Amino acid sequence: MTATLQRVSPNPKRVLNRHDELAILKAMDARDEADENLRNTIVEVSARSSVRVLADFTGMSTNTISRWKADAKGNHRTRSD
């Protein structure tokens, strides 16, 4: 017995249309801008507040906030340094 192959139409859920792609890209750009704004604000406020207070308020780790402060000062060291 031989099987008959039938052409299967493509699944529309496996492809993004251009409108959806653009909507996602726009949302990603907005997220990146918001992340940058948050980072800059936390670094600015860290000059007047402790890292611990900022970490408690934001729910972020003290390590992240300390790294952001160091990056802003231009003296962040990587593990390979």
Q: In words, what does this structure look like?
A:
The protein is elongated. Helix content is 59%, strand content 0%. It is an all-alpha fold and 81 residues long. The protein has a domain at 49-76. The chain has three helices and no strands. The longest helix is centred in the middle third of the chain and has 28 residues, at 18-45.
Comma- or semicolon-separated keywords:
81 residues; 59% helix
Provide a quick synopsis of the model.
This protein has 81 residues and is mostly helical. The protein has helices at 18-45, 51-58, 62-73. 5% of the residues are buried.
Report Rg: 23 Å
Regions with pLDDT < 50 over 5+ consecutive residues? Answer: none
Number of strands: 0
Largest beta sheet, briefly? none
Number of helices: 3
Element pattern in H and E: HHH
Bin the strand percentage: under 5%
The structure class reads mainly alpha
- End-to-end Cα distance, whole Å, is 68 Å
Helix content: 55-70%
Average pLDDT, all residues: 89
How does the overall form come out from the CA principal axes?
A: elongated
Layout of strands and helices, then pairs:
Layout: H1 18-45, H2 51-58, H3 62-73
